[in-house]
Amino acid sequence: MRRSMIALLLAGVLAPFAAQAADGVDAIKQRGTLIVGVKADYKPFGFRDPSGAVVGIEPDLAADVAKRLGVKLELVPVVSSNRIEFLQQGKVDMLIATMSDKPERRKVVQAIDPPYYSDFVNVLLPKKAGVKDWSELKGKPLCATSGAWYNKEIAQKYGVEIVAFDGSEKPLFALKQGNCVGYVYDQTFVQGKLLDAEWSGDYEMPLKGVLDAPWIMAVALGNDTLQKFLEDTTKDWMKTGFIVAEEKKYGIEPTDYSKGMHEKMKSATN
After folding, report:
1. pLDDT confidence of 162, banded at 50, 70, 90?
2. Looking at domain 25-116+216-259, which of 3.40.50.1220, 3.40.50.2300, 2.40.170.20, 3.40.190.10 is its CATH number?
3. Which pLDDT band, with edges at 50, 70 and 90, does 23 fall under?
4. Average pLDDT over residues 231-256
5. pTM of the predicted protein model
6. How far apart are CA 153 and CA 142, in angstroms?
7. How far, in Å, are 20, 23, 70, 117, 232 from residue 225 at the CA level?
């Protein structure tokens, strides 16, 4: 009797859990949909078009992953403060959401190597401010996004006062209201804002980018098959120059990292 019960447990309980943990890609294919967490407030990496659809560089990368898997794509908007929580709770299969590569994050998610992107930190400033060097910001308030990993380091290194808000829209509004001298954020985000007529007329990015940091995609810990699939996909993006082409498509200057990885990988045989 005991042997029968053990056999039933092994067949009915243990086997499904083992399959779920080991076959992430197969489970996604069986479901027919890949669910990806992306930004929706970060032009050009993830933003809403006039119809309300989430578009941008990272949604395009997600679409390519879904195409390679042969499944439909579902995008879930995330912000910096909830993206890892969404992944851990199983609300998304993976993240492509402007997430910088930090040791504390690698402890709670499975990072995809190599990092697919890398970006600097910079400041959106009014042209009338005439700021040309980081040292000119000492003692002045800088709007920022809550949770950005570099806020503390920027404050300590350049002597600025960080005034943090949730998301990116609130600090931009505060900047326009004159509550701070500039908005410190990822350089590519600032570049994206300056593509809009709303910002390009009166604002600029005159400073040299600092604190270059790679960006990682992530899956849940233990999702080995999806991890391997995404690692191979990332290498293929670099080999074909797909990310460089996406940067040009959305009107930003290709970074040294994306250009360098394309040059390094384009002749690779595997």
Report:
1. very high
2. 3.40.190.10
3. low
4. 94
5. 0.80
6. 13
7. 11, 6, 15, 22, 11
